[in-house]
Amino acid sequence: EGLKKLKIASQKLGLGVKVYGPETHITAVVPMALGLKEALPEPDLNAGPAPPPTRKRIQVKNKAAPKQTPTNGNKHTIVTATPQSRAIVYGLQNRAVQGMLDFDHMCKRKTPSVCAMVFPFSGNHYVKFYWGTEEILVPVYTTTKEACQKHPDAITFINFASFRSVYETTMEAMQYPQIKTVAIIAEGVPEQQTRQLIKEAEIKEVGMIGPA
Question: What is the pLDDT of residue 72?
Answer without folding.
Answer: 47
